[in-house]
Amino acid sequence: MEGLAAVVDPGDVGQLSGAVLCDVRWYLDGRSGREAYEAGHIPGAVFVDLDADVTASPSAGSGRHPLPPAGDFADALGALGIGPDDTVVAYDDSGGMSAGRLVWMLRVLGQEAALLDGGLQAWDGPIESGSTTRPAVDCPVRPWPDGAFATIDEVARHAASGIVLDARSPERFSGEAESVDPRPGHVPGARNAPFTANLDEGRFRSPDDLRDHYASLGVTDAADVVAYCGSGVSACHDLLAMEHAGLGRGRLYVGSWSQWSATDRPAATGA
């Protein structure tokens, strides 16, 4: 848990010698993150494709953004020119919603990685267009660590006795709106912790504010928490926010609602 903070200020990026900047823009509405990147990005940043580089192929049995096999992730990093000793700073233009998935995955592997606080909107330096590439490197395969992720069965058990956080919007959590996954609602026993509540005008709230926020959800130690969302992406934002608040590291339910709602497991509705 020591090392680089989970969130870094744009003004501090220059102090991270040799840091690899990663643009992880992705849009639920289908817009192209790569096109947005090519239109304008932080100089030197490489584009990381959430669907191709950070997740495995979707399926009803594993959800929309499954965890890739460790070997596939190592290959993707190597092709991007990212080695295990590189410090990574990732950003997007949605408050860290998509970039957080890459940061979370790297941090659980023990690599120094952080979110750029405020993302592209907070960057007041130059912007460049086109694409940036780095020479490919050999990136070793690092097994996903035990204890960093929760299975669907573990989530069902944990919801009965521990804390399960749902990072989706209140409308999707309550079941009022669901246009993406098979059924509306949430995991019975889960508590709604929209990732947007971690932010204030696009920047992360202070660690003190975040501790108070998560305390209101019953969280005093993230080790007791499993977080999920629609497909295991924005839940990483909650997990990183808890690290930023000094609450430690929780677990990610990668399959999230896209997996749960494709089964016959019960679904709760309402707040």
List descriptors.
globular; 4-stranded parallel sheet; 271 residues; 12% strand; alpha/beta; Oxidized Rhodanese, domain 1; 5-stranded parallel sheet; 2 domains; 11 strands
Global structural class = alpha/beta
CATH class of the largest domain: Alpha Beta
Say how many strands there are: 11
Order of helices and strands: EEHEHHEHEHEHEEEHEHEH
Helix content: 25-40%
Shape: globular
**Which sheet architecture does the biggest sheet show?**
5 strands, parallel
Describe this structure in words.
It is a single chain. With 271 residues, the chain is α/β, with parallel strands linked by helices. It has 2 domains: 116 residues, Rhodanese-like domain (Oxidized Rhodanese, domain 1, 3-Layer(aba) Sandwich); 109 residues, Rhodanese-like domain (Oxidized Rhodanese, domain 1). It is 27% helix and 12% strand. The chain is built from 9 helices and 11 strands. It has a 5-stranded parallel beta sheet. Strands 7-6-10-11 form a 4-stranded parallel beta sheet, sandwiched between helices. It has a two-stranded antiparallel sheet with strand order 8-9. Strand 4, helix 4 and strand 5 form a beta-alpha-beta unit. The mean pLDDT is 96.
